[in-house]
Specification:
Layout: E1 20-27, H1 34-42, H2 50-55, E2 62-68, E3 72-78, H3 86-92, E4 98-104, H4 111-122, E5 128-133, H5 142-148, E6 159-161, H6 170-182, E7 194-203, E8 207-215, E9 219-220, E10 224-228, E11 232-235, E12 238-241, E13 244-246, E14 248-249, E15 254-259, E16 272-274, E17 282-291, E18 300-305, E19 308-317, E20 322-331, E21 338-343, E22 349-357, H7 373-384, E23 386-388, H8 400-412, E24 417-419, E25 422-424, H9 426-446, E26 453-454, H10 455-462, H11 467-478, E27 482-485, E28 488-491, H12 503-515, H13 530-541, E29 545-547, E30 553-555, H14 556-573, E31 576-577, H15 578-585, H16 589-601, E32 605-608, E33 611-614
Parallel strand pairs: 1-3, 1-4, 4-5, 5-6
Antiparallel strand pairs: 2-3, 7-8, 7-16, 8-15, 9-14, 10-11, 10-16, 12-13, 12-15, 17-20, 17-22, 18-19, 18-21, 19-20, 21-22, 23-25, 24-25, 26-28, 27-28, 29-30, 31-33, 32-33
Length: 615
Amino acid sequence: MTVGNSSPKIGDAHGAPLQKHFIMATAGHVDHGKSALVKVLTGTDPDRLPEEKARQITIDLGFAELNLPGGIRVGLVDVPGHEDFVRNMIAGVGSIDLALFVVAADDGWMPQSEEHLQILKYLGVRHAIIALTKTDLAVTDIEVIRHRLRDTVFAQSPIIRTSVRTGQGLEDLKSAFAAEFATMQPPRDYGKPRLFIDRVFTLHGVGTVVTGTLTGGALRRAQKIVIQPGNRETRVRSIQSHNHELESAQPGMRTAINLPDVDVEEINRGNVITIADLGQPSTKLLAQVSLTQSLKSGSSVYLHHGTSRYAARILSLEKDGVAHVKLFSPLFAFLGDRFVLRDASERRTIGGGIVLDPDGDKHSKLPAATGDAGLCLRAAIASRGFVRKETLLRKSHFSADEIGAALLRLEKSHQVAICGELAADPDAWESLRTRAIRLIDAAHKRNPERPGLALNELRASLRGLSVDSFAALMTDLCADGFVRAGSAIARITHQASLPVALRPIEKKTRAALSEKPFDPTPRRAMGEDPQTRQVLRFLIEKGEIIEISEDVLLLSEHFAAMRATVVNFISKNGPATVSELRQTLHSSRRVMVPFLERLDRDGITRRVGEKRLLR
């Protein structure tokens, strides 16, 4: 398999590791000599399709490799310059480190020169070498090109006069590449690999192969991966880069992956190879956009991201350029990703932007800078109030270590509250704690006989609180003056006690249950009024009454005496029937049947046939 342009084949298995890997792509108007320049620089013809050969025009992406001094290996992407294939051009420049911007001396600056320049700007490309081609055919004042680049990040980029016919400037161009790459850091590995697929093909005896530019992290042979959108799980059978077999591929490499158990029809350009636990695609996003023409809320556009494009609608566009965008198919984007906007006719590039919230929560607090982990964390937590730490900035360009360190700084400066596995906005968390404490105190005042406020009642009163957030809240409260009492929570200082007005009912209840200790008054005979129910509940929760069944209640000391009598009787006489034990205790079948079932559940006795044995 191969990431180049020759017919797909199994390549050389002796590739040696190199020091630095970068991606460079061409840009510029049609017929300005981009492909010819790539061919003479690398020895590889990037025009691989028969139609391209016949029409002598680049239609789709082409690929080559350029090795430079200093251990620099460059994957070179050749893009089409014709206005009909801008979609393909954008797919080729989405993950590049350097642009080889080509302008022909005989044509000068042309429409797609300008459009490609705008696309590079919107995608955040910051480095370029300008190749002034065909200098054997015409003379162009370099200052004319320099004027076109004014007010851009490429204003001071080297401009090299070249000719593929005479060889002029080719070595100077390579030297300029080497000098530029030598000052650049290789693409970052932040542990979140994404391979934006630009080619899909099948090889006899090998199966489905995909290629793309690897960003964000490494991929290794046999690693489990997922294909997004769709969350299709598979694994890496083998990896190559420019025909070299690899154990692992690094960010900045043109990468080919053999996928087992995936049919070629199941995957397309625009899909993303990544790993699990990086979140899911979304059909909405919030972004900061920059436009070359006015755009209204409700406008239909095409959004180009990675190697794909998405039909989309601008749901809202604020004066500060913040747009809420709806996509008509799921997009797997990260905070900080760049994209390009084109109009609904796909004839004009109308703007671009940067993703502020890849899940498109319209009420998100937006980060002031997408490159600052602390600011992004603060915004994400402020937006949601309470967030599981493991999900924070999952879809972002920050590594786990960067996120952890920033979170620690925020905690130390009291900008974030850490509550177990939860990160919370301090104001939101304090407000939640205050509400919970008020509810608990109100329950103590309303029902002083209760051990506390039932947890399910508290969570229902707090409305919409997740299981994780509620658990963290309970942990926080129990570390600060509160205690769990079974399925309730109370202040440590709370002592359950009956109100004075209910104490006569308590006395009457105890008397009723003591009149016949082992055959007490049925529960229903004690009264169904709220005060009696309140007293019974209090005594049951305190353990002073044992609830044997819905209608049978025993004072705890009577329950203990009955249990001891049963154990003593069976120990002396062997297995006993309900009738024998009832007669011994001077009880009734109404009481003895549920009582013995309770002893069975408690592991004191067990039933064999009609008799009870000790366990």
